[in-house]
Amino acid sequence: MNEAEYQKRKQDPSLKLFVVLSKASRTLNDLAQMDMTRYGLNPTEFALLELLYHRGKQPLQKIGERILLTSGSITYVVNNLEKKGLLSRIPSPQDRRVTYAEITDQGRDLLNEIFPKHWEELERFMDGLTDEEKSQAIDLVKKLGRSAEQYKHI
């Protein structure tokens, strides 16, 4: 590729959008992760507790799909949270192959305490946009994600 082609490609809106979205996502994720660690939780532990807090008990086999973890990682995170007393494993009475993870009272108390603070931090991180701009961004990024989904199977 010669210099002229390179300069033209640098101005390509698809490439620029990808770079801008990637950098913004990385920055926001880093900020959110720093906030989560203030509470003694890593991002995966926080995500799992939040899932159980909002959705109730979940089969361990389905958790990976919901928070994008491999089965080995799920076991590790569940073990850590169980040791901390924040969740418990519950065998299914109908199917011995199924085990549920359920948030404990201690886990619920922790999230009741920290989630409002975390939410405030997320709002602070997003204060560069008005509510209307946030709504527009949500719609556009969803549209982009749905469109990009078609290429996952290629």
TrEMBL record:
Biological processes, Gene Ontology terms: response to stress
InterPro entries from the UniProt entry: HTH_MarR-typ, MarR/SlyA-like, Tscrpt_reg_MarR-type_CS, WH-like_DNA-bd_sf, WH_DNA-bd_sf
Pfam families: MarR
Alphabetic keyword roster: DNA-binding, Transcription, Transcription regulation
Domain of life: Bacteria
Domain annotation HTH marR-type: ranges: 14-146
MF GO annotations: DNA binding; DNA-binding transcription factor activity
Protein name: HTH-type transcriptional regulator MhqR
Organism, scientific name: Alkalibacillus haloalkaliphilus
Lineage of origin: Bacteria, Bacillati, Bacillota, Bacilli, Bacillales
